[in-house]
Amino acid sequence: MPESSRPDGRTGAPAVSVVICVYTEDRWGDILAAVASVRDQSYPALETLLVVDHNPALLRRLAKTYGDDGAGAGTGAQRVRVLANAGPRGLSAGRNTGVAAASGEVIAFLDDDAVAERDWLLHFAGGYADPRVMAVGGRTQPVWASRRRPAWFPEEFDWVVGCSYRGLPPGRVAVRNVLGGNASFRKSGLEAVGGFASGIGRDGQRLPLGGEETELCIRLTRALPEAVLIVDDRSVIHHRVPPARERFRYFRTRAYAEGLSKALVARSVGAREGLASERRYTTRVLPAGVARGLRDALLGRPGGAGRAGAIVAGVAAAAGGYALGTLRARRGGGGSFAVAALETPADGGSSPDGGTAPACEGAGG
Predict the structure, then answer these.
(1) Is 250 exposed, middle or buried (0-12, 13-18, 19+ CB in 10 A)?
(2) In 139, 221, 248, 278, which residue has its Cα 20 to 30 A from 177's Cα atom?
(3) CA of 206: how far to CAs of 94, 202, 221, 253, in Å?
(4) pLDDT for 188-238, tens place per residue?
(5) DSSP label at 344?
(6) pLDDT per residue over 89-104, tens digit each?
(7) Which region, left, alpha or beta, applies to residue 255 given φ > 0 means left and ψ of -120 to 50 means alpha?
(8) How far apart are CA 242 and CA 61, in angstroms?
């Protein structure tokens, strides 16, 4: 989209479309809050696209709420379009549906159970002043259902609940990959590589898989060697953590699932690139976290031993998932994935499958 089409008349700044993937009416209030936070941006979005993942009832309800005339309700930052996922069930196809339908030069993704701070898009847009920049990510902060972090829950594992974690570099820095629940991409870059791959991230399976952003970002920098990916931690969103995800059982399951996902990513792009950031994380960040937890335990601080133990358990679970995923891949049964087509959906159209699936969730890096 030409710069002259910016809804607020600014020049030299990209038009940004915001994509929010949704899948269940159980998050109705969260969805409305997410859209409201986009509408309240200091840097107005060109449009907000709500992509519904194979849930006709939710599709109809959102279309009624935000307008079902095909063009979307409102104008400028108030414009909301409701779309059906045009591809197979899951997060990757839902995102690709949004990318294909978006009019902006930049596509920003926001989780359906998160709200963005007022300058979220302002800092995203600023990153694209450099034409080499193909992706800009932000910082995601947890909003605990219990109103406080569980004493045993280590900050090094906040990726388990879709949030930024201890060990990520602060400020505005170049990275290997951004985290998908709070990220933006040049549309041209996404189109160059065909969008997100299906079969890696969440698609309605019992396990909370992830890793699709990592695979996409590596594929993007391979296809466009001059591409730069950055994180600007001033682009902040607040992500709700429900009670079930504050429990150790989910923590362990999510870590195990991440190991499985990393095995798929390594199979796609090679272990050297697919695990480069993870090596530093496991050899430097996590040992420091264990030491900090043990020190706190010796000083009588609450949760110190629990945090140290959770880090060890999380590493073991992730390693187990990675080993199993690698073994399955070698035996030819490790699952498959493919780059889903960027198909343009019919606005407000219903999908043939009325089921639901976990659609939008931040994944570990």
Answers:
(1) middle
(2) 248
(3) 18, 9, 31, 10
(4) 999 999 999 876 655 445 566 767 888 899 999 999 999 999 999 999 999
(5) P
(6) 989 999 999 999 999 9
(7) alpha
(8) 24
